[in-house]
Amino acid sequence: MGWVAVTNGVLHVTLTNPPAGTWPDFHLHSHLGLSFSANRKYRVMFRARATPKRQIHPAVYQVNNGEYISIGGPPGPLLDQVALARDADVNLVSFSAPNCWTSPEQPMDWRPLDDLCRQIVEVNPKVLLVPRVNANAPDWWLQRHPEALMVYDTHQPGHFASVSHRAYRAVAAAHLEQLCRHLTEAFPNHFAGVHPCGQNTGEWFYEGSWERPLSGYDPATREAFRAWLKARGDTNFATAEAPTADERRAHPNGFLRDPVPELRLIEFARFQQREMANMVLALAAAARRGSDGQKLVVFFYGYQFEFPPLANGAPTSGHYALTPVLQSKDIDILCSPISYFDREWLGTAPCMSPAESVRNAGILWLNEDDSRIHLDTRTTEHVQEGGLVNLRQTQQVMLRNTAQAALRGFGTWWMDLPGEGWFNDAAIWEEQKRLMPVEHAMLKRARPFTPEIAAIVGGDSMCHLTGGSGVAAKPLIYDARAALGRCGAPYGQFTLADALAGKVPAKLQIFLAAWSLTPSERRALTVNRLPKITRGWCYAPGYLLPDRADIAAMNEVTGFKHRTVSATSTEVTPTEAGRKVGLTQPWGPKETIQPLFTVEANPAETLAAYKDGSPAVAVRHSQRGLDIFIGVPALTPELVRAVARMASVQLFTEENAAVWVAERFLSIQAHKNGPFVIQTGRSHTVVDALTGASLGRGPSLTLPMEAGEVRVLRY
User: What is the 3-class SS of 41-104, one letter each residue?
Assistant: First the structure.
């Protein structure tokens, strides 16, 4: 990594590019006993010169028993950005904060946390603080409890304690409760809530989930898994082990687990989801107790649309036990970053979660907007994550993303991810000021965001995916949001549980993942189907029952008669009937995907076909409404538009664009240059919601727009 030398009283540090791209920390230790007086400020000064130009982040720490406690450092851009937010009338501040979790032998010292809070309060006396604190076990605790460490299929321990280790769970909850009590007492008018973070990137999915190593081989996980199996009536629980890595990566029956020979694998996937959810619930209850039920409790959790590209498959993530989390009375806000797919300049900024179902549960969904704006200096990641190249693109993306949050009823925060001042520019905050009238109007909305298109995912279905199933699940679930977001009408994201309960009123309901359904769930789909509802059934709807895989059982769900089809490619081509409804281009993964299904349908019902001529997309009217079978595991904007017309969904434009609508407000980002025809559906004056300028009259309005331009209209 480099070498260090002292020449003529000057410290020289020579670095070489690190293999993983992460630059190391350098610590200069003093063994001198320094004494400091209370309530005094001290200044540490030094000079630094770098060749070539680079950023450094100096800080001063006290080291106690191996624990680094921050004493101070340059203020950095945080306080400047707090001031810019203040001037834009944004008083809620989320910030990374020390958790002050030291060993019992050390006296409790909240000073690092308190000092940071006080600095923020000094900048904005009206600030509401939501510190993000690390709930992972500290090093001193792990050294005393090495058995708590996660273990991987490589037999190597990880860096974090297993969420199944009950002692870790208990002490983490106890410290969080103590921290919340302290902040409630120390900052009663400013402490708004707490955001406990842990596991991979602090977001409560299993460490290393994006990589190949599989976790779950530590003693705590084994014992918890056995208890799980016992509670579920498994007579062989006492000797149960986690499935082997080879078993978890294999797909002997294709990309879906067979409930009979692969039941133990399915159970382990379900178990891992519930263990992570239980960890979140334990911490949430502790935060609620520590704040006497008066402060907000925030968690990263519920990324049910985001994990299909995982190397090991979505079932290894831990985010698919959302139902008990939504039932909790101890959680106020769930959040995630904006999806790392399709967030770029000409994107749609998809949400990771079934956010509308989170709202239905009485919990606020919040988008963390860590868009790689033009002030991001990290060249490689900037390009990789769809980075923005100039201020204008940044302004357009921030307006697009924040308008979406306002219209859908989300919260949002702008995240300076590396703490380098991404939002330290007043010109960016002008977009927030411009949007403020729309946000105020949304506070008076008559009803929640109610789109006519719904994307629906069943969490238990995702637990039936095999390792490496991303080739099928990625285009169907992860990538589908790009198609939905460009179709010209707004859409919402829901859980299967809400659909079963009749809580999804959308005219067009697209079931992206509903291949695992119990008999009672099948009945609920029939009983709670609202009149005049169109349902799109993707890939393998109803194929899996608790005790078998059954092609015939799919008929009960879709109304079609199904059979399997073998194909070296799942790419499909529009038929004559498909071209009549607007399908023009072939689409779909070109890989072999098994199992793969077709249906019996006549030519007039068949909108697209596999290469052997078998129906891949088919429609059927019946007394229960319109059902559309979408066997190809992929959506396109024109396919969504075609089925939306069949469902009598209002399309606000026929062009690819990011469109969100609520309470007669419409946000649109153009994805190309040219005139855009906007169909408002109302013979009423249309005005620019940000300036008040009249733009014409509906129900049809033509607007000249440039690629990337964002307009917010009131009609």
Answer: CCCCCCCCCCCCCCCCCCCEEEEECCEEEEEECCCCCHHHHHHHHHHCCCCEEEEECCCCCCCC
